[in-house]
Amino acid sequence: MGRPRRRRGGVTIFTVFAARLLPAFLLGWEGNAPNGDDLPRFFVRHQQQYGGYACRQVEHVGALFRLEANLRHGRGNLRELVEAFRTIGESGDRAAIPALPRDLQFVEDLAPTWGEAYAEGERKWLAEALEERIHVPPVEDAFEGLVRFAAADPLNFLEGWCALTPEPGADADVPAIDDYSVDSVRVTDEAVLDEAMLGDLAGSGRRLGLAGPPRLFFLWESSD
Question: Which of 34, 110, 119, 170 has its CA 20 to 30 A from that of 203?
Fold first, then answer.
């Protein structure tokens, strides 16, 4: 599989705010970032609403790794994890929770919230549920729809995972994917995380003036 092509000529970073692409890991930086030239196609701007009824907003830039596109990489059943987190999103069906594996039915207690951080018991369950199926770094803090992990070498956790690589369409001046346009944008998951891709990601962050190495986040659709 070849390296994803790069954007040139001032085309803006793809903005992604499509709950249908979640749950996912985001490897990158939190906070606003400028646009830039000569960026890899996997480098996206992701807008996340989190905190349940508090409707908090946060932006990340970097590489988005959809669980649904990486089911083969889990050490457990990742499909169960996808279904569990989708039941508690705004577009989810909480009536499906009793059909989940017993260790995942605890998602019912993760939503809805009013923007407060999860308590120690909820963070512990969340970390264990993820770790059972995916090797992840320690959880630093967590809210409904957003988990921040402690700094760690991402290759120890997501090496070989495939990142979202959207193709610009006719409206390349404002490239974006939301829940209404996701079916009309060519979206593949072809950028494979290895040392070369990680170096490309880190180099892109430096050119945009982003501080520090890329960090890992876990995202799912909030209940509001």
Answer: 170
What confidence tens digit (pLDDT) does each residue in 151-194 have?
999 999 999 999 998 876 544 445 777 776 666 667 789 999 99
Determine how many CB atoms are found less than 10 A away from the CB of residue 91.
10
Say if residue 137 is preceded by a cis peptide, omega within 30 of 0.
no
* Distance between CA atoms of residues 110 and 146, nearest Å: 11
Contact (Cβ atoms closer than 8 angstroms) between residue 197 and residue 191: yes
Q: Which two tokens stand for residue 202?
A: 């880190």
* pLDDT tens profile 101-111: 999 999 999 99
Instruction: Report pTM.
Output: 0.91
The token pair at 21 is 């692409």
137 vs 216: CA distance, rounded Å: 8
User: What pLDDT is stored for residue 9 in this prediction?
Assistant: 39
In the chain, the number of structural domains is: 1
Phi and psi based region of residue 26 (left: phi greater than 0; alpha: psi -120 to 50; beta: remaining)? beta
Strand order in the sheet with 215-219: 139-143, 146-149, 215-219, 24-30, 56-66, 44-50, 14-17, 176-178
Structural domain boundaries, residue 52: 1-224
